[in-house]
Amino acid sequence: MTETPALTDLWPAPHAEGPVRATVRVPGSKSITNRALVLAALAAEPGWLRRPLRSRDTLLMASALRTMGVGIEETVSSESCGVVGAGEAWRVIPAGLRGPATVDVGNAGTVMRFLPPVATLAEGAIRFDGDPRSYERPLHGVIDALRALGARIDDGDRGALPLTVFGSGALDGGKVEVDASSSSQFISALLLSAPRFNQGVELRHTGATLPSLPHIRMSVDMLRAVGAQVDEPETGGEPNVWRVTPGALLGRDLTIEPDLSNAQPFLAAALVTGGTVTIPDWPAGTTQPGDRLREIFTEMGGACELTEAGLTLTGTGRVHGIDVDLGEVGELTPGIAAVAALADSPSTLRGVAHLRLHETDRLAALTKEINELGGDVTETADGLHIRPRPLHGGVFHTYEDHRMATAGAILGLAVPGVGIENVATTAKTLPDFPELWTGMLGN
Ligand SMILES: O=C(O)C1=C[C@@H](OP(=O)(O)O)[C@@H](O)[C@H](O)C1
Ligand SMILES: C=C(OP(=O)(O)O)C(=O)O
Fold first, then answer.
1. Domain boundary assignment for the chain
2. CB of 392 within 8 A of CB of 415?
3. In Å, how far are 154, 156, 338 from 128, measured between CA atoms?
4. How far, in Å, is the centroid of ligand 1 from the Cα of 172?
5. 374-405: per-residue pLDDT in tens?
6. Which CATH number applies to 30-251?
7. Of all protein residues, whose CA lies closest to atom 5 belonging to ligand 2?
8. Which ligand is nearest to the CA of 131?
9. What ipTM was reported for this prediction?
10. What is the pTM assigned to this prediction?
11. Atom of ligand 1 nearest to the CA of 261
12. Which GO terms describe its molecular function (predicted)?
């Protein structure tokens, strides 16, 4: 899949000499930051995002909204609105959206899916382009649904990027069917802009499966928090149907939660080394899928405690295999696979066929890279079988996938001599990863 890089291009993944003991402050959630930016841009009044994530995906979202006319100002404050230490913030000033503009989506699912609906509300042409991999990621659900709701889009009949949305300043909206089995982001994308569609939206998912439900809940909760009226299946609505009523959105003052999926490698470090890691500011209640780590890593041998100090995971040094459906929390798969490769019994990870269309084909990439370190992983139709074997050092390729890089770092803690190719790819959601990782190890 990738040529072997020169040794100098490799990041030598630190090997843990003993149990890791650390407190690690994890930056803000990618998924919450990018939803908050979209909702603030569509609001009827200015709003604030405090402790936003600043990473490739969120900076791409911010600059895309800016090119369409939205004001996003950087501010620094040590105390704001009673939130002591809230630190840096973005003030978002909504404006009439306009083209012509070009949006670089990078390889951010949230940008490529959440912004075409926003672009239908702009006056003028908005062109979307991105990394080569973004051309391969599914987008047809958003394109077809927007067309059915009245949008004019030129995608060269590819059903994918690059494309141009010819915004007319408004979209009719109304009833539409979407098969979101390849990405929950199709549903989130349409819901987030729907309060601004003339008739709102009545969205019916027609596919056999629906991944990443917590991320859809996150969209619904965040819409409701800015005043939108949403009916959805989980609170008594019709199965597979979401309805959003048209209406103005409030500008809010929102402090972004830490990214719990990015907390995963640090918690895994405690689990695989028999150490203790605390993640401060772990929310007591959240829609983030990373919260499921408390249950999953407990089943794999850790002990979790949620206190005022945050979430503390303590490992015994023994890691157990797991049989688990990760369909709701697919983005946790690479980290769980890495831990499973170090366990004392086999694992089966299920429900994640759609990971083949993530940043890379994650099922193929994990299989190949773990096996090249001596592991025994096989792909199934919808996941992975992982039989732990003694592993050895070698190159761990990352395929421009941030979660492959952090998975490799977990393996490196237990296996000497793992070199991670292009660790800088972690900048997609966690630019400071190498520093946070070595800091955790006390180096
Ligand atoms: O809406 C979101 O913020 C996300 C939804 C999920 O996408 P899929 O449903 O495509 O897996 C998840 O994997 C991605 O990391 C973030
Ligand atoms: C799948 C992921 O990202 P994206 O938002 O690009 O889909 C991820 O972060 O694991």
1. 7-27+258-440, 30-251
2. yes
3. 10, 13, 35
4. 27
5. 999 999 999 999 999 999 999 999 999 999 99
6. 3.65.10.10
7. 109
8. 2
9. 0.99
10. 0.96
11. 15
12. 3-phosphoshikimate 1-carboxyvinyltransferase activity
